[in-house]
């Protein structure tokens, strides 16, 4: 089974719609936690705890790459799921049904 996140539906919008139904609120929070867990398991990059040790001897000068600042790429979002939830906080006016494209 495949699920598609609809950008027209936001977590905050659903949460406000379900404000008077505690059972739906629990299910919504459970679904968000399950989605976050699935994202962390399948898509998130593993974090490494090992720090690189820089070993230099006093006799040799430290190399410095002065061109590195010109080759910097744009930093991608670390957590795409959190970025999705952030982007869908403000609803956008949709005039086209994405399924009819």
Structure, described:
- The protein is mostly helical and 101 residues long.
- The chain has a domain at 1-44.
- The chain contains three helices and no strands.
- It has helices spanning 11-17, 22-42, 80-87.
Put the structure in a nutshell.
The protein has 101 residues and is mainly alpha-helical.
Keywords:
single chain; 101 residues; mainly alpha; 3 helices; elongated
- Put simply, the count of helices is 3
Approximate shape: elongated
State which percent range the strand residues make up.
under 5%
Poorly predicted segments = none
Regarding quaternary structure, how should these chains be classified?
single chain
Major sheet: size, sense and barrel closure? none
Return the string of H and E elements.
HHH
Q: What is the number of strand segments?
A: 0
